[in-house]
From TrEMBL:
CDD domains xrefs: MATE_tuaB_like (cd13127)
InterPro entries according to UniProt: Poly_Biosynth_Transport
Transmembrane listed as a keyword: yes
Highest rank taxon of the organism: Bacteria
Name of the protein described by the UniProt record: Lipopolysaccharide biosynthesis protein
Pfam families per UniProt: Polysacc_synt_3
Bilayer-spanning residue ranges: 12-35, 41-59, 80-102, 114-135, 147-167, 214-236, 287-310, 322-344, 364-394, 415-435, 441-462
Main location: membrane
UniProt keyword annotations, A-Z: Cell membrane, Membrane, Transmembrane, Transmembrane helix
Amino acid sequence: MSLKNSTFSGVIWTVADTFFLKGLTFIASVMLARLLGPDEFGLIGMISVFIAIGIAIVNSGLSSSLIRTKNADDSDYSTVFYLNLFLAILAFLIFFMLAPLISHFYKQRVLTDIIRLYCLSFLFSSFSAVQLAILNKKMQFKKITILNIPGTVGGVVLGIVLGYLGFGVWSIVWMYLSTQFINSLTIWFFSNWKPGFIFSVEKMKYHFSFGYKLLLSSLINTVFNNVYNVVIGKFYSVQLLGYFERARTFNEYPATILTGVIEKVTYPLLSNIQDDKLRIAEIYKQLLQFSFFVTAPVMFAAAAISYPLFELILGSQWLPAAKYFQIICLASMFYPVHAFNINILKVYGRSDLFLKLEIIKKVVIVLGILVSFPFGILALVWSSVIASLISLIINMYYSSDMIAYKSFQQIKDMFPTFLIGLFTFFGMYAIVLLLQNYSLYFQILMSGLFGILFFILVNFIFKPMPMLFALKLFNHTKL
């Protein structure tokens, strides 16, 4: 299959996996939010940082090393498999023992059992990590999507049933755990590769020398991405953390749809042409503009209708989360751009620079928290947005030196889409305010129609490059 066809097929099937399958999980979480409440989701928010750390340890950057290795063989795959399994067991044991201390820190005794059960997912994931890396390396995204169906459906059904039966927070835990278990089991049995009795110290050193820097970067990134949960959970109420956690999760869903597609498709794609910097710059520029062209208006629109949307979907008990959601939209529209710049560093093997940048960016987050904490939770949310935008500028500055596409030019290319999206937001928000005495459905429908028509009309008048590229992409023309 040609590079063009592989890329287009990858985009389509990764969108299917990210949008439809993760969409089922998202819908299930909406249903559980209505059944449960902010307190239950606040408990999950408290442990999110520890679960994310465990997942980062299991992934450890070794899968990325396999993908970028041009002539990887069974020795590479088997060595990484056993190393991943060892790290998963280590992570499970660490958090199993730390669970009582974590529950004491938050003064929530139930967290001990929740953490110990949740951490079984580390073991499940380690059994399929290499198989997934192989499928991603070969850009077999259709197969990945199909293999993810049983786990997603099974987990969603189990979670919703347990929620209706009154299992509370445990319905969330079992939904996630069952999804991970079934997914790993399915991938294991339907994968063409199985580990052999091979372990190469030389291969381990090779992959670990690249992967450990990504692991450290991922750990730092994970801790600081969830540091707001820790601060809010410790110094504010469980309910406030529940509002913040749902606002951020709901906010990240549309943005991470495209970000997930970008990370899965562009990393193996760019790795395959890493020696052709001009070609990389050409594809990078087109995909960056297109991704922002899709993400920015979606996030602006979501921010504009946040209050009627939250009340309609989750109920009035979740309305306080809408204001957090609205603020975070300003940062999440740039997530795909973050993903592009990070992939460039990984493609060229600069995991050392990747780690250095993560440390710099986390210093920015700490300073933001220290400055904003005395002013309350809203100030903390705003500080997270500002820190994210500063981090983006840092990523763009360093990655742009590796390709012929400077950071100033990236900002210039995104600015027209940002401006159109901003005007779309103001128009939609004004309509919501004017129609606030009408039904929630009517508010969302009328503001949504205005947003779609306004965005399409302005783009067809000015014909920006991202729109032209979008038309070419869906006509299967060459990237």
